[in-house]
Design brief:
2 copies of one chain form a homodimer. By secondary structure, chain A is mainly alpha-helical. Helix content of chain A is 75%, strand content 1%. Chain A contains 16 helices and 2 strands.
Chain lengths: 324, 324
């Protein structure tokens, strides 16, 4: 649709012209590096698309979108240190390339910069409302990362615990991006909530798909080595379901494998098979699709046109499925 | 003076009643630990005292003061990881006690919490003005920490470079605290600037005194092992002056010692002696006192009473000298 055209490329152009260089070089190079990696820009594009359902885009919208994208990149930088991840978007992670100290400090600078960009929202009524939502969400994302780290040392994680973790760690930021778009479009509070719920459900589907791709995807399209979650004994929904529903021998095998955490091809292939045989893969696909359905329902009564809804749904579906 | 009485104890009470616990425990325990260590609370008390020169204190002032104190503690948590410091205020640093990951994430949560507390400033004109100053200062503090880290791998750091580093890393937060107090007191912009300059000069004197105490202080009152800067080859003003002005043999000795960086009593005693013999100690004391004089001048024309000025000066002097 014409009015949603080029949102991503306009946003990329805005990054290029508005991402400041906080001197010295050692401070800005790491965050320029990560922000400029090729990325889907799902959150800022969803923010802009939501706003565009209500009114034409202006500078305030792009500043808010950039703030969100920088916040997201800040959290990736710090999470990658904590998770000892070596690649991100097919490239070296910041701490791998520049060292832990740079990733800590440049990440801090990026978080502060994201707050600083919010200053540029000229409509101060919008700003105040966005600011409060922003702080709430930022806190929730820290909670999500903490829960995720806690799960590492827990053998049994329940499905509700897992869902709560991904909601905090991933889904709330997409939900917030869309609600910010609605706030900037002067949407009424019912619509603001509808967009939040839509983003939240899409975010859940997105993360569940992410877990599926980590085991069942292909390195080339996923941008990271397949089987990472299995090797690291991540308590994904696949793992949680399999541990509850696999045959006794398979359960024991799962628990045995969780004693090691180096990269191991045999571990990956055995556990992948257990995920299939136990019905975990099918269950997780169904779960993903349920969230997707929930998203469709959330947006159904929003006071925007049918065409706009369809665009948002289609865009969200592509994002979940990782179709370019 | 009656009106400045109990600022610190009122602030401590405010911390106790207003420092939230962001669940899970692993997230809030580390920041509760550091915030509750015995501390002088120089920044929040200076903020409150400045406001008190203009008007009685209210909730807005305490929220702003708490935000500043939390920001300060966030930066300590992350700096201590980067600097590999093991003790802080006589106790284990957060990363030493809880691990690097906890110090990173709990620090992030603390920074976000400090932004969240600013939301509580009910006067939104004040809030907007404070918010913009806050972001600017937070960025400068990151720059200061980066410069400090850069100095580690540089042999020759000049005095202006050093002064710029401590201005960013330390002085701007005290300056900002006082300017926020003035903003909350509806001071005119000349007065706001006067308080900023006062805080900046006091902050410089404070940091220079900190460097002096690290070499010439006593463990019991300083709360950390004496000689840490010397062992870590910190480019303090003492080091910079001595390297430029000591006898040739002493300069060579300084450069030789900088090849090692473990704890070494002989290194400490030899370099301490060089700092005395080269006149570095005397020079640095004079430099500290010049900043102190500059502070006095800055506040002289502020439109507050003589008594109020004298209180602020006395409080600042005590803070610089570390007198309880």
């Amino acid at each position: 649709m014409e009015k949603f055209k080029d949102l991503k490329s306009s946003f990329e152009a805005f990054i290029t012209s508005h991402l400041p260089k906080i001197a010295p070089r050692e401070l800005y190079e790491p965050y320029h590096y990560i922000v400029n990696l090729e990325a889907k820009r799902v959150r800022p594009v969803m923010l802009l698309a939501t706003k565009r359902c209500f009114a034409p885009l202006g500078e305030d919208d792009f500043y808010a979108a950039l703030a969100i994208e920088l916040f997201h990149n800040f959290s990736l930088m710090h999470d990658d240190i904590m998770d000892k991840s070596e690649t991100r978007r097919g490239q070296a992670t910041v701490h791998k390339k520049y060292g832990d100290n740079s990733a800590i400090l440049s990440g801090d600078a990026l978080l502060i910069l994201s707050y600083k960009l919010l200053e540029n929202i000229a409509n101060k009524v919008h700003f105040l409302s966005i600011y409060s939502l922003y702080n709430k969400t930022a806190t929730e994302i820290c909670i999500g990362q903490q829960l995720d780290m806690n799960f590492e040392s827990e053998v049994l994680v329940s499905e509700p615990e897992y869902l709560m973790m991904i909601e905090h760690k991933t889904a709330v930021l997409l939900a917030t991006s869309m609600k910010i778009g609605a706030i900037l479009g002067d949407a009424n509070s019912t619509d603001c909530d509808a967009f939040y719920k839509f983003g939240l459900a899409i975010g859940m589907a997105f993360q569940i798909q992410d877990d599926l791709l980590d085991t069942f995807g292909e390195t080339a399209s996923v941008g990271k080595r397949i089987g990472g979650d299995i090797c690291n004994n991540k308590k994904t929904l696949l793992h949680i379901y399999a541990l509850q529903n696999a045959h006794k021998t398979h359960k024991e095998l799962l628990l045995q494998w969780s004693q090691t955490n180096e990269f191991n091809e045999m571990k990956i292939s055995e556990i992948t098979q257990i995920f299939i045989d136990s019905g975990a893969k099918d269950y997780v696909i169904r779960k993903r699709d349920l969230y997707y359905q929930e998203a469709l329902k959330s947006i159904e009564f929003a006071s925007i046109s049918r065409e706009d809804k369809d665009y948002l749904i289609k865009f969200a579906q592509k994002a979940v499925d990782r179709i370019k």
